[in-house]
Amino acid sequence: MSRRYPKDSCLSRYLSEISQYRVLSKEEEVVLAKKVRSGARSVNRLVESNLSFVVKIANEYRTMGLAFEDLLNEGNIGLIEAAQRYDHRRGTKFITYAIWWIRKAILKALAEQATLVRVPNYQLKKVREIREMERNLSRSLGRRPRRDEISAKMRSPVAKLDEILQIKMREVSLDEKVGEDRETPISDYLVDVTSVNPEDEFIRNEGTELIRTALFTLTDQEKTVVANRFGLKGRRLMTLKEIGEQMGLSRERIRQIECQAKRKLRKIFTNHRSVASPLKQILPKKKLPPNRNLAPADAVGSRK
Question: Per-domain residue ranges for the chain?
Fold first, then answer.
């Protein structure tokens, strides 16, 4: 559903501005990606052409307790991270690769917010000031700023900034209740059947010989869950709860079966020469196992 904002609002002006950026073709992305890898400052062009996509993704999380503008800022940071890491030689379209980084940045911010609501206001204000400076520097530098760069701009020792930020380091469970009603667990937002997930989109392409062969490795129970989750064989997409009610199992058990099936399929896909390179780029190396806590660590901005 589209939303309208006052014409003179900052958000309205921002949305109007980014709508002017043309979406790049695959060939144009490759040219820019080559320039980025060679050290040229072409990240901004690659980022600007995909800002509208961040709006679409951020809109999926707008009821989880964080202001829409903040969701956009965090998503844009993830987009910048993706632009810096993107390797066109893998044959993957840029936005297919970037979607994971955008979601990761937004979910990290939501996890931090779940902690910050329990922090005294004066401490919360300091954290927000640091985060605002971090976002401003990200925009001006075209990358996530280092702690010492934030420290210099805020004229505060790095140790002091780290001390302030320590208040948000509590681990947040995937069962943490968020949203307007404070009744929806974070895990419900990790997968959205209406959004484009590159791995899921690949599984839905059941017409390929590889997908048909891979599905035969699943148990009957796993096949049923996957077929309903991804709309295979003409079925409609179903939620975990709907599948659970149909099979007489809990929502959590269906989620575990889905994860188990996707691990099997992923192993086959990544071992197959024709799809190994693209999938290795779009899939995170580690998946959250069932019941694992999500820690708001600084993994998004880390470098190898």
Answer: 10-189, 205-282
